[in-house]
């Protein structure tokens, strides 16, 4: 939802894009913290596709590729701007539908011209200051998952998570209250991992390859791209 208006690419809309021969959005640039160049491939009002967007109404952009992270796997979407030759578009929400990343928002207020058309070359400018607050909270969900299983036992499974700039929430199975002494142990393990300042790098790998990696933790009931987070000294976290 952006500016009070919900914009969703339903099955009919995504089928229309497929029938036009439009490939899924390439979102691999989301791992690169820099301005990304792309091309507008579709503009959606919430009810129809249009060739050119102008004015103050909210709409959604589908790009050829994007550096914006769409909301998924419990992590909140990126915000920022998409700048074209005749207007700057504020990105308030980013969602993915059947492989198409939809950037939802509206034009910046001001006297400048406000227009974006299919085929325009644009610059994706993610708010990386905000992303920098989100990323460590996401990494901490994996450290917390590890610590919970170390202290409470291997029966603990992740049931969900919410990752925001200001906080994270981690849902897990245990079946009984966590005792204060166990909480202290869990906190110590997580804090120790933070103090170790382990380097984190990311790459996408095939699910079949990931299943062969010892220590892989999967969240059952969710469909998400698998990202490997490599930690030196053979310690590996997974998203």
TrEMBL record:
GO terms for molecular function: alanine-tRNA ligase activity; aminoacyl-tRNA deacylase activity; ATP binding; tRNA binding. The keyword Chaperone does not apply. One of its GO terms (biological process) is alanyl-tRNA aminoacylation. Pfam families: tRNA-synt_2c (PF01411). It comes from the Eukaryota. GO terms for cellular component: chloroplast; mitochondrion. Residues 1-239 form the Alanyl-transfer RNA synthetases family profile domain. Its EC number is 6.1.1.7. Keywords: Aminoacyl-tRNA synthetase, ATP-binding, Ligase, Nucleotide-binding, Protein biosynthesis, RNA-binding, tRNA-binding. Belongs to the class-II aminoacyl-tRNA synthetase family. This is alanine--tRNA ligase.
